[in-house]
Specification:
This protein has 218 residues and is α/β, with parallel strands linked by helices. Helices cover 36% and strands 14% of the residues. α3 packs across α6 and α5 (175-189) runs antiparallel to α6. The two termini are 34 Å apart.
């Protein structure tokens, strides 16, 4: 299996607060890559895309991370094509607590690799031969281009989801309140917990209009 690194961009998942210590994972990075490769290959994947919070200039021409690169937000996404369709897994659950702890992004990649291993174990008794356990992780894809939302439309959409206790006026008055409202709604309607992918995508677009990149506002 091949892998390449790409910039993360906006974090479109609920932000984990508080995070666990990355010291839970002491395995070498090479071992994590071997585990990830093994699990993806068993799903007929050949290329894994690791999205990390770095700039385009921090990525070498061969798609690997430059030695000087500094990773900001700890969250990562791992995407690949599989026999069940395109899949995307994300984690921001770990961050270093002590100097000797592994980098947050590497710990989050290992958490994803272990999650893939656990999902495969569900097949042990032959109950999920159609890959049902992977359907909630189908990659969220954008639909046809839409007219960008105004700030008022964005605030109205988040409030109109019925999943937050804030008012549109509050969201328009404070980026922090808008970010809080988004987190409330996102936890309830994310596809990972059975929500509608299109609603979640529009919710995230509304958040971006009001808040901008959540990595800088979380």
């Amino acid at each position: 299996m091949r892998y390449e690194i790409r910039p993360l961009g906006s974090w479109d998942r609920p932000v984990t607060e508080p995070r666990a210590g990355s010291g839970r994972f002491r395995a070498p990075w090479s071992t994590t890559l071997d585990l990830l490769a093994h699990e993806i290959e068993l799903l007929d994947g050949t290329l894994a895309v690791l999205q990390i919070d770095v700039e385009e200039g921090d990525i070498r021409r061969d798609g690997m991370l430059a030695a000087r690169a500094k990773v900001g937000f700890p969250g990562v996404k791992v995407s690949f094509d599989s026999r069940h369709g395109p899949l995307t897994y994300a984690s921001d659950a770990y961050e270093p607590r002590y100097y000797s702890d592994p980098p947050a992004w590497q710990a989050n990649v290992r958490a994803i690799a272990l999650a893939l291993q656990a999902l495969r174990a569900v097949d042990r008794y032959g109950v999920t031969r159609s890959g049902e356990q992977y359907r909630g992780w189908t990659a969220i894809t954008a639909t046809a281009a839409e007219t960008p939302m105004t700030r008022g439309e964005a605030a109205t959409f988040i409030v109109g989801s019925g999943l937050t206790s804030y008012t549109a006026a509050q969201l328009l008055s404070s980026p922090q309140l808008a970010a809080n409202a988004y987190r409330q709604a996102a936890k309830a309607c994310h596809p990972d917990v059975g929500g509608d992918p299109d609603v979640f995508r529009r919710l995230t677009a509304a958040r971006d209009v009001l808040v901008g990149n959540p990595i800088t506002t979380a």
